[in-house]
Every structure is written in structure tokens, then in C-alpha cells.
Amino acid sequence: MAVLPFSKYQGAGNDFILIDQREKQWLHPHNEALIAQLCDRRFGIGGDGLILLQTKPGFDFEMVYFNADGREGSMCGNGGRCIVAFAHHLGIVQENTYFNAVDGPHEAKVSRPDWVELKMIDVANVEKGEGFYFLNTGSPHYIAFVEAVEKVDVVAAGRAIRYNERFKALGTNVNFTEITQEGLQVATYERGVEDETLACGTGVTAAAIAFHLQKSGASGAFEVPIKVKGGDLAVRFRATEQGFEDIWLCGPAEKVYGGEIGI
Fold first, then answer.
1. Known active-site residue 39
2. Which residue intervals of the chain are DSSP H helices?
3. Nearest of 247, 253, 194 to residue 63 by alpha carbon
4. Which CATH number fits domain 3-116+253-262: 3.40.50.10540, 3.10.310.10, 2.30.42.10, 3.80.30.20?
5. Alpha carbon 160 to chain centroid, angstroms
6. Nearest alpha carbon to residue 46 among 78, 6, 98
7. 76 has catalytic annotation
8. Same fold, 3-116+253-262 and 126-251
9. Residues 39, 76, 82, 250: which is the catalytic one?
10. What DSSP line would sit under 78-92, residue for residue?
11. 126-251, which class in CATH?
């Protein structure tokens, strides 16, 4: 039995297992069952996902993300912020970093202790449907505006959308979004976790863009404060006639603990 060293990080309640694979490849993409077991909250470490930090020529590091079901996933915004904090604590990066993820290169910065700002991909295409918006911010997101998030059964309502005829093959994340005096309040059902999570970085990014389109769609620089069940986040961006660019997801990214586990 090998002994796997790991660290546990969380960003606004979105928690992840972080593995340093620079010197030894502990896990491979085909280890779905093992990764799912490590993410299990009763029989493993527990987490919304697992992230590998690996070397990549031309970058400070590479991020490889797995959903809690053990399958390699699309981009995870809070996971991206957590791996930057992990790299910072390992001494790989200082204030600024440039790393690669499944959706391409990302810039990020540690602007103050335990606070990470992550640049997201540009967004050019947003679908406006009857009562919803659908867009990709590194992962696909369905945005439904509601009057009161706390009254929504996030799991039941989210699962109904995630598994409907349109989305059941590839899945989608579902974000129930309430407009507040301060900004937004968002609750997310995540595919791959197949449950509600306390936060979703690509989800709140999508919600902020949908909110801007619903509110005015005006060009310019904007910042939207967002409250999730695990804490507070913020999304800033520049809206143009071509879409959205210079998008930054900002929020806490903190180490919870480190340890070892037999695999």
C-alpha cells in the first residue's frame, strides 16, 4: 500500500483534495474508482473534487481536475483558485501566476493572504431562453432567476433540469439566482457531484454575466458581489459589443488541513 500525501483546501465552502504530482505521479485519469473513493465524505477524505498539480512546459504548473464521481471534469473556478493558493503555499508561485487547465491558460494572483483572483475565459455566446440563460464559462451553466433562493429545493429542481431531454447526455450545472440589494445570491446544483455545493466559481461567473444581460447589457467595466451558502465571492468583467472579457473570479481560498492516506 502506498501512502499518498494530500492537502485539503476550500474556497467559499467549495472543498477540494489537492495532490502535488511534480515529482511522482500518484494518480492517473483512469483511477476513477480510487478518486471517487478519496472524494467520498464517509469512506475517504471528502471533497467536491480532486485536483492534481503537475508540471507543464511554458507554465508555472498544470491543473488537472476531477469531479467527485472520479471522472475528469471541465474547468472549476473555485478549484482553480484553490490550486493557486496551494502552489503559493508550496513556494511555486508568489503573487502572480500563469497556469494551464482543461480550458486553456489562466492568469491568477494572490492579492492578499487566502484571497485569490482568477482570470476566466472570455464569453462570446450566451443563450437567452424562456426563463433562463445558458452559457459556458469553462463549464456549462444554466441560470434561472428566482425570487428567493432559500425557498428553492436546489437538488430536486436542479436534478430535473440537469437530466431533462436537452441536457441529460452531457449534463449541465444549474444555478438558482436571486437579485438582492447588494448584488446576487446563488445556489448551485453541480453535475459530477450530482448534488448542491456550497459554492461554484464558474457558476457565479455565469450568474454575474446573465444578471448583467438581464439588467442592461451596457458596455463597460462592472463588478458583481455574490453571496453563496459557503461565503462571499465577487466577479468583475468588461462587457463589450462582442461579449465579455477580462473576467475575474475573486474570493477566499484557504488550506483546511494536510495529511496522508493509504491507497
1. no
2. 32-39, 77-90, 154-162, 201-215
3. 253
4. 3.10.310.10
5. 21
6. 6
7. yes
8. yes
9. 76
10. HHHHHHHHHHHHHTS
11. alpha beta
Domain boundaries, given as residue ranges, for the chain: 3-116+253-262, 126-251
Look-up of cell digits 446544483: 189
Alpha-carbon distance 127 to 121, whole Å?
17
Of the candidates 15, 13, 19, the residue with the CA atom closest to the CA atom of residue 31: 19
Residue tagged 446573465 (cell numbers):
210
Task: For the chain, give the number of residues.
Answer: 263
Q: Which residues of 140-171 are buried (b: 16+ CB within 10 A; e: fewer)?
A: bbbbbbbeebeebebeebbbebbeeeebeeeb
> Which residue in 39, 82, 200, 250 is the catalytic one?
200
Closest by CA to 250, choosing from 219, 223, 218, is 223
Rounded distance between C-alpha atoms, residue 22 and residue 64, angstroms: 12
Contacts 24+ apart (CB under 8 A), 221-224: 221/246, 224/183, 224/184
Who contacts 77 (Cβ-Cβ below 8 Å, separation ≥6)? Answer: 118, 120, 137, 138, 200, 201, 202, 203, 204, 205, 249
pLDDT tens profile 125-136: 999 999 999 999
- The pTM score is 0.95
Residue numbers in the chain where pLDDT is lower than 70: none
pLDDT value at position 119? Answer: 98
Q: What are 141's strand-pairing partners?
A: 135, 173
Distance CA(184)–CA(161), nearest Å, equals 21
| The three cell numbers locating residue 75 | 474547468
The predicted structure's pLDDT at residue 47: 98
